[in-house]
Amino acid sequence: MKRAAFILVIILGIVSCNTPKKARTSNDITNKTEQDTVRIANDKLEYEIIIIEPGFNVWLEVTAKPKGYYSQQFLESRNRLFVTAWNSRVLEPSRYDPNLYEMQIDYRPNIDYGYDVNYKLYNYFIFFQLQYKQQLTSFVPRI
């Protein structure tokens, strides 16, 4: 019994000898924000989307379906629906939380934004719906 108590004290002593944690600096916070920022741009078409959403970048890399899983046509059709629903919610701040729906998205169906833009935009809508328990269209968001 004494031996077990002695071993327990030794283990607790080792566990409690933790090194002090480094204080967070503004660089750490800036790096975290940069990691949570996804920039989608095409200088040739002169557009840019910046998504600053904690956890989205990691979710995109870990949880989202890989690039190539969906066709560009599928992504474009879903994005048109999501953008329409999103923009209508932006225009109704008394009905929908204006902290969630802050700005309209200018997504024009006659412009070819390319696969990468459509892929990231589509996945942001899926992430947003799952994260904030929202449903933009009749399609249930799932992975």
Structure description:
With 143 residues, the protein is mainly alpha-helical. The chain has one domain. It contains five helices and two strands. It has a two-stranded antiparallel sheet with strand order 1-2. A hairpin with a 4-residue loop joins strand 1 and strand 2. Helix 4 (72-90) crosses helix 5 (115-132). The N and C termini lie far apart (53 Å). Residues 18-33 have low confidence and may be disordered.
Radius of gyration: 22 Å
Portion in beta strands: 5-15%
Instruction: Please give the alpha-carbon distance between the first and last residues.
Output: 53 Å
Q: Helical amount among residues, as a percent range?
A: 40-55%
Order of helices and strands: HHEEHHH
> Average pLDDT across residues?
79
Number of β-strand runs: 2
What is the spatial order of strands in the main beta sheet?
1-2
Low-confidence stretches: 18-33
The major pleated sheet works out as:
2 strands, antiparallel
- Content-based structural category: mainly alpha
| Total DSSP helices | 5
Number of domains: 1
In short:
The protein is mainly alpha-helical and 143 residues long. The chain has one domain. Helix content is 48%, strand content 8%.
What keywords describe this structure?
8% strand; 143 residues; 5 helices
Which helices and strands appear, and what pairs or packs with what?
Elements: H1 2-16, H2 26-35, E1 37-42, E2 47-52, H3 56-62, H4 72-90, H5 115-132
